[in-house]
Predict the structure.
Amino acid sequence: MKTVNDGLSAYIMGRNYYSQENNYEQNYQYSYDYYKQGVDKFNDPRCLYGLAMFYYDDGESESENIVPKDNQYANKLFLKAYPRLAALAKESDMYSIFILGAYYNYGLGNVKKSFSTALKYIKKAADLGHQGALYDMGRFYEIGRGVEKDIKKATFYYKRAATLGKLQATSKVANILNK
């Protein structure tokens, strides 16, 4: 693992390894280490959110072997990160905007779960070019979650995400085109 020079770089590296973005292979240990470095060295709220997700048991995560799941501890981290993420989102930080979408999607911290609000944040992050948000918008249009099902729009978003290095988006485009 390389040392990074700022919190945003630590967050991006952590996310790359967690979510297979920018053509990185998934490696949860590297992801955790980058998030931890971003919190310890730079007190970055995006990294704090990333760490919290390792502790949060959403029933979907495959990162159990890195740290034990502890929703109470995760909630403390989510609560601590939220105000600073909201401030960064007001400055059009696409990463913080996307993260706020996750807060509303899952009902993290003391945020009331609302998919319609989550969708607004995710769409805004996609409009700013966030890979994960572009991929999620593709998924939403592919299955009709919160939007009318539209394979053409799904393909558009998946292609944009793939162009930016989102590995799963490349296979989604191939699957859609081969139907």
Q: What stands out?
A: The mean pLDDT is 92. The chain is about 70% helix and 0% strand. Residues 62 and 101 are 21 Å apart (CA to CA). Residues 1-128 form a domain with the Serine Threonine Protein Phosphatase 5, Tetratricopeptide repeat fold (CATH 1.25.40).
